[in-house]
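hiii so um. not sure if this is the right channel but i have a protein structure encoded as tokens and i wanna go backwards to a sequence. like what aa goes where. can anyone help
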């Protein structure tokens, strides 16, 4: 009986956990990826120190640095090359959104000039650190066949060495630790 109650409590805790977790840690080389499957929509949200993706964490000071930001943004927007969902599910990229406290929306190629999202902790920013937050949405023609996604971010960004991933799928929630050698996220 006791173990039954424990199981019910555990199940309740797992299902009531927030989809987008709170990630405060800023560790160079590491990033967080939240993945959610809701009906036909596969959403991914990456939060990473800018250093992993760009090599610096300040406002660009010259043309070379601005070009670097543009190249990073272009690579992040070509998300079909960064994330490969189960091919049979026929998922297509529908939108992407990039934000950082030290980079303007224009520089990141945002169509709407929104105020950059509030994120990262202020203490980190005072010490010269900054994050990038990226979100992508895929729409799948056969979501019932969606079993996972291969994460190829490591190939495009050598500064990235590990990703703490969190998945919320119809089959439940789970966490995974991804590295260049372990890129498959399955559910
Ligand atoms: Zn940093």
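sure thing!! here u go:
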């Amino acid at each position: 009986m006791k173990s039954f109650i424990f199981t019910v409590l555990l199940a309740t805790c797992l299902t009531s956990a927030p989809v987008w977790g709170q990630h405060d840690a800023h560790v160079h080389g590491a990033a967080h990826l939240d993945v959610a499957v809701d009906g036909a929509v596969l959403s991914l949200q990456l939060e990473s120190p800018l250093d992993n993706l760009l090599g610096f964490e300040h406002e660009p000071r010259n043309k070379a640095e601005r070009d670097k930001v543009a190249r990073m943004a272009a690579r992040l927007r070509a998300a079909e090359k960064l994330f490969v969902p189960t091919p049979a599910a026929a998922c297509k990229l529908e939108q992407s959104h990039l934000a950082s406290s030290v980079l303007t929306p224009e520089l990141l190629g945002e169509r709407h000039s929104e105020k950059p999202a509030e994120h990262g902790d202020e203490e980190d920013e005072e010490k010269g650190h900054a994050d990038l937050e990226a979100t992508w949405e895929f729409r799948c023609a056969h979501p019932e066949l969606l079993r996972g996604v291969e994460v190829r971010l490591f190939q495009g960004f050598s500064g990235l060495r590990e990703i703490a991933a969190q998945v919320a799928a119809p089959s439940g929630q789970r966490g995974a630790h991804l590295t260049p050698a372990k890129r498959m996220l399955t559910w």
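oh and The beta strands are 30-38, 41-49, 83-85, 91-99, 131-140, 148-151, 162-169, 172-178, 184-186.
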